Amino acid sequence: MDYTETLVHHINGYNGIIINTTLDRVVLQNGEHTLREVVEHPGGVTVIPVDGEGYVYCVRQFRYPMAEHLLEVPAGKLEYGEDPLECAVRELSEETGISAGEYIDLGKVYPSPGFCREVLYVYMARDLSFGKAHPDPGEFLHVEKIHIDELVGLIMSNEIYDAKTVIAVLKAKNILSQ
Question: Is the pTM higher than 0.85?
Answer without folding.
Answer: yes
